[in-house]
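ok trying again, last paste got cut off:
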Amino acid sequence: MEKIYIIIIIAVIAIALFFILNNLEVFRDPYSLYYEGDVRHFRANLFEANKTPVYPNEDAIKDILLNPELYKVYIAFIPNETENAFYAASSFEITNKLGIVYRHYYKGQTGIFKDVDESSCIAFLENRTSKCFKSFPINSTDELTPTPIEPVILLLGPSRTNQTSIVVNNNLIILQGKDFSEIDRKYTDLDLAVDKMLLVLMT
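nice, full thing came through this time. structure:
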């Protein structure tokens, strides 16, 4: 009888340890986040991404991208032969994940369509609202005219910045990464900034 009790106690302890360890951050997949009923995969290590500084603060990101009046998010970058592929990957990641975020806030049926400027759009039918995304190259930041309805996310790589951070200024969100090398890792500093912005919106 004592052996049975000992076996039961060991089993209970083992199960308890399993659930405790499974919920500790150190044992989680650092590239995934459970959000909106599914596991979402990211390009960067989220523990590292979460360390990316945001100026002036994280709420500034939410104020822009979760503004109910927002219609279109522009994603801009200054072309560079060695960096263009990274900008394309970041633009895709932002568009994809922001679509998931907006589906979280605007429940119900959705539809997909193209705007007159070829922007990719999601229509939230029950809320009678749409959110669109367009990535485009620029020659200078002077070309940007962000507004509350059409904010701009500007991607900057090593040729344009010497820091990895997020800077929010009015309706402009600057995501910058100083290092695009992937030595001893599978992501760039720009991936860290992109995923930090997404973490702010998804956690």
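cool. The radius of gyration is 21 Å. The CA atoms of residues 81 and 87 lie 11 Å apart.
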